Amino acid sequence: MLALTLSLTLDVILRWAFGTPILGLYEVAEVCFPAVMALALVWTNTQQSHVSMGILGQITGRDDAPRLVAALLNLGVLGLFVWFLMRYAMTKASYGETTLVLGLPKAPFWGAAAVAMALATLAQLAVFGAELAAYVRHGSRRLHNLVPPVAMVAAALAILLVTAHYAPTIGAGPKILAAFAVLYLLALAHVPIGVSLAIAGLGAVLLQMGLRPALLVGTNNLVGSLSSVDMAAVPLFLLMGNFAIAAGFADDIFSAATLLFGRMRGGHAMATVMGCAGFGAISGSSVATTGTLGGVAFREMQARRYAPSLSTGSVAAGGTLGALIPPSVILIIYCVIAEVSISKAFTAALLPGLMATALYVLSVVIQVRLMPSLAPPPNRTQSSRRSAPCASPGDRSSFS
Fold it and tell me: What pTM value is reported for the model?
């Protein structure tokens, strides 16, 4: 990832300064990224850091059974992905397809992606084995804990079957509602969001159009996602954000904003909003912005006896700016799906992002003016103190 990043940076510099791009670099990045993205799933599966909803476990007080069911479904989907990539690599090999500029054969690169996906599947198999062993150790008296997640998965499958049976006679609206119902049932059963989307989409295509269209749609979507150079900007932004965390950049942004607003009533809340806007422009992620700079800002405001409502509110509101102010990961994903220009979307989002930042700051000003108890009186002789770093160089929890 770092080698590709440095190569692309050098290519941009050479294009701008000398008008001499690196020949075929776009093709190299396109064929290398599938294996890199598939390898990332090895770590994700090992750490079990998929995005998922733990509502069922919170309601029942038992999350071991939902985790077991989710691990099994995740294993099945990854095995299906391995099959897709192997078939795709074999197809490329049979036709002898190569890249246009450098003439690189595509089959070995997609074979490497299939191997990387197989490693991710093995990692998930180990996770499933660990979850199964942990569940069995508790004895059969907890067998009833499997009922809620299994029932939700069965209900999702039943909805797919009913929708497929009545597909010729119902309109698009009921089909869309059925797809959302399947998605949310699986998500509530603790199944990772990505796996839930894959099951809902592939299941609908399989039941309504047949096996061959499902294989074609599934393979094309997986290949397109893994080899998309536009989508490759997402992990590169996250890599840049990790470098910023390791360098303590979040502290620097908050300190700079505090120097501007710290001597005003509610100034640290305003600095939080401005700092979130600045860090959001680096990381491109609302979650990373909230988790990283929010920890720094919240400690500062609590130390100065800000009202908890204003402290948490300014962090939560400022964190949303990471999804709006360019470069934004959400905007990139939207543009890739909607097939619109990313640069135009970034340009269009800049003014709304700045307006949202200004309105958040104005909201803090109005609140502390109407309710002075929300923030302490400004201390005009007190300078901004440097807070402890929000994350160590090895901490990547904000971007998991």
Answer: 0.74
